[in-house]
Amino acid sequence: MLITRTTVRAAMLACFALLAGYFLWLVRGGLYPFIIAFFLAYVLNPAVGYLEGKGLKRLWAIACVYVLLFACLFIVGSRLVPVFVRELESFGHDLPQMTAKGEELIISLQSQYQQSALPHSLRTALDDGLRTLQAEVQALVAGVVAGIVHALTHIVGLAISPVLAFYLLHDWHELIAAVLRTLPARWRHETVLVLRDIDKVLAGVIRGQVTVAVIVGVFVSCGLYLLGVRYALIIGILAGALDIIPYFGAFIGATPAVTVALLSSPWLALKVALLFFVIHQLEGTIIGPKILGENVGLHPLSVIFFLFIGEELGGLPGMLLGVPVGAVGKVLLSHFLRLII
User: Fold this and answer.
1) Domain locations in the chain?
2) d(CA 53, CA 94)
C-alpha cells in the first residue's frame, strides 16, 4: 500500500491539531482574556463594518465604536456600580438572617402539611422536595457570590481584554486571510462557506441573544425596583445573564427573585412571579422575534438536548454554551455529510 503525499499531509495536520488542542487545554486557565477579547471583537465587528461601509477607515471606525461603548459604560456604570456595591454589601450582611428566615418558613410549611390528612408518602416526598429546593437555592447563591469574587480576582485579565479585542478588530480580515492561506487551496472555498454559515448561526445565538438578555435584565431590575424587592439590580443582572439559556433561563432567573420576595410576603412573591411571566411573554412574542429574526435552525428538541448535555458536562456554564456549540456542530456536520455523500 503506497502512502501518498496527501495522506502524509493529512496525518501531520491531524497531529498538529491534537498537539495544539492539548497545549490549549494545559494553559486553559490563562486563556480567559483572549476568549473575552474574541467574544467582544465578534460582537462589535458588525458595528465596525457598518461604519467602515459608510466611508470611515477601519481604525477610525473601531475608535468611534470604542468611544461610544466606553461612554455608555461610564454613564451607566457611574450610576449603577455604587448601587451594585451597596446591594452586594447589604446582601452579604443580610444573608445569615435570610437563611434563618428561609429555614423558619420551610419548618412552618412542613408543620402545616404534616398535620394535614395527606398520605404519609406524599408528606415524605414534600419534605424531600423542600430540602432539595433549600439546598439548590443555597448552592445558587453561593455560586453567584463565588463567581463575583472569582471575576474580581481576574480584574487584570478583564481589563486587558478590550485592548486585545482592539487588535483583533483592527486585523480581523488579515487574520481570516492568514488562516485561509495555511489551508490547501482546494479546501479554502469550502472553509469560507463553513465560516459564513457558522457566523450566520452565531449571529443569532450570541449577538441577538445577548441583546435580548440585556433588555430582559433592564426590565427585571426596573420591575423589581418598582415592586420594592431588595437587591433588584443584582437579581436583574443575574436574570439577564441566565436568560441566555433557552426555555429554562427565565425559570432559573426567576427563582432568586421569587425566593427573596417570599421572605418578605407571599403576596410580593406572587407579584414578582407575575412580573417574570409578563416579561417572558414580551420576550417570546415581541422582543425575541424582532431582534433574533430567523432562528438558529435547531429544533426545540435539539435545543433541550444540548441544554441537558451541557448541564451534565459543565453545569450552568455548560448550559450557556450548549446551544452555541450544538449549532456550530450542526453546521460542521451538514458540510461534512455534503462532502462525503
Assistant:
1) 30-98+140-182
2) 53
